[in-house]
Design a protein that fits this description.
Layout (H helix, E strand, L loop, with lengths): L2 E8 L18 E9 L4 H14 L15 H9 L1 H6 L6 E8 L5 H4 L2 H17 L4 E7 L4 H4 L3 H10 L6 E7 L5 H19 L5 H4 L7 E6 L2
Parallel strand pairs: 1-4, 3-6, 4-5
Antiparallel strand pairs: 1-2, 2-3
Helix pairs in contact: 5-7
Organism: Flavobacterium saccharophilum
Pfam families: DUF3800
Protein name: DUF3800 domain-containing protein
Length: about 220
Amino acid sequence: MPMNIYIDESGDLGWKLDKPNRHGGSSKFITITGVVISKDEEKFISRFIADIYKKYNLTPNIEKKGANFLPEHSSFITSQLANKIINKCDSFKIISITVNKSKVFDSLRKDKNIFYNYVLGLLLKPEIIQFKSAKIILDKRTIKVSHGESFPDYIKTEIWGNGLDIEISCHFLESTNNKMIWFADWYANFIWRNHEDNESSSYDQLKNLSKDKFTEKKLFF
C-alpha cells in the first residue's frame, strides 16, 4: 500500500547554546516528527482537526501552530487520539526523533544541510523500507527551504543504494494548505516541548501508545 509521511519540526538549527532559547540563544533540542497515514485514511485526521477547531472556537482553515496550544489543550488533543484516529486508522502512526544539540560533535555542526539530512534519514529509513511506495511531504516554509532541498536525493541514495526497490517521492508544500502538515506540526511541538521546556502534558500520553502507533528516537542524549 502506498504510504504518505508528513514531516514538520520544532526547534532550530542554530548553535548559540550559551544563551537561553527565546532570549538570544538557540533551542537546546530539535525534534522532527512524521505522521504516517494512507491517503484514504487522511479524512480521519481532517475530521479530528475540525473537531479541535470547533471545541476551541478557532477560525476554520487558518493554521494554528502547535506552539500556540496551552498545556491543557495539548493534553486534551492527545487524549482524543485513540477514539478519533487510532481506532479508525490502521495505517496511522506518529514517528519522531529528537536531537540533544549540546552533544552534537563539531564536525556535524559545520554543515546544517548534512546534519538535517542525517537526522531526517534516521527517522524515515526504518519506515520507508516497510512499504513498496512512500510519498514524503515536507513543510517548505520552515528550515527545509534552505536546508532540506537536497533531502530527496539523499534519501533515495540511502534506500536504493541498499538494493531496495521502493518508489520514493518527496514534495515541499505550504503548510497553510495542508492539514496533515498542521497535525505533524502539532506533534513535533508537543514532543519537543517535553525535552526543551519539561512540559510533558501530551508526551506522557504518547509514551503509553503502542509502538506501532508511536515511536521516538533520541540522538546524542
